[in-house]
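Please, does this match?
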Amino acid sequence: MASVKVYNIKGEEVETLELNDAIFGADYNEPLIHQAVVTYLCNQRQGTKSTLTRTEVRGGGIKPWRQKGTGRARQGSIRAPQWTKGGVVFAPKPRDFTKKMNQTAKRTALFSALSKKLADGELIVVDEVKVSAPKTKEMEAIRKALKLDKRSVVIMDEPDGDVILAARNLPTLHTLSVDEINTYEVVSNATVVLTKGSVKKLEEVYC
């Protein structure tokens, strides 16, 4: 079992914690991580964009001029794509971008991503994340104490409204509950911060 240092919100080491190898000691599987990220991003797409083709644009039912004798190129409608206010060629229409991924594969990708973060020294465990009031300056102080200089995610065992509000205005820091953890959030952030409670919950759910 891997052992990590546990810090408090002031950046001070308070204890060490043993991590389960099933979650934090998995082999690195880049193709599976890629599949999980692509699946997640596709499932975020609404697929509601829609524009009009030449058959749907209002007007254009008559030829603008006769076929021959004008010296101009032949035209059948002023709503053809080459005309201003004409229809769109291969217009995007509502569609479903949803992709499916097996639960086992999704779980394996998450474990692989977390293990990679731990191996690279980009995973931090804290005893808890608390603020006395939903103020940005308090979360900024925590960010500086933990040296989270790049884009980072704080994963809590339970949603905390004050912490969420305090972190909302920090562009390089956002929060999640452990129930929302996914491979994309792990790999898209430079540093992953887990609370002790979230580590325990992960081990309870997956081990």
